[in-house]
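Question (not urgent): is this output format expected?
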Amino acid sequence: MIIREIRVDDAAEFIALIKEVEAKSSFMLMEPGERKTTPEQQAKQLERIEKQSNATILAAEEHGKLVGYLLAMGGTVKKTKHSAYLAIGILEDFRGKGIGSALFEHIEDWALKNKISRLELTTVIENQAGVALYKKSGFEIEGVKRNSLMINGKLYDEYFMSKLL
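Got this back:
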């Protein structure tokens, strides 16, 4: 497995990966089919991210195929530039194989090189595998976002988690 920064020429494969992850996980923010991003729109977004010193997307690649990603979006004003919000997605068949742990190790290295001292994320409390991965990666629960998401007609709470570097 290779962990690398995403490239603009990955746009079509990357958006397909995101859509597949969303189609098979009820814990992602967008529901299956809700994301309408085209490969061209994704390429433009990747170009913008490349220009930000406090934002990146790491890709996990297995046998030439993208199987997971970890997005880090840094703050856009002086008071939040030190902080990055994370979102992770891994194809169902590749979960539980160490890819998430590898992505988090690499994002921490990237963060330290780019003067990021706070990583944060949210996750549905019932996402036991995700919560376990985040805790294993050094994240701590800071609080609960009550009734944060409506999934299949039911309200769910989310943990707000962070890791200070």
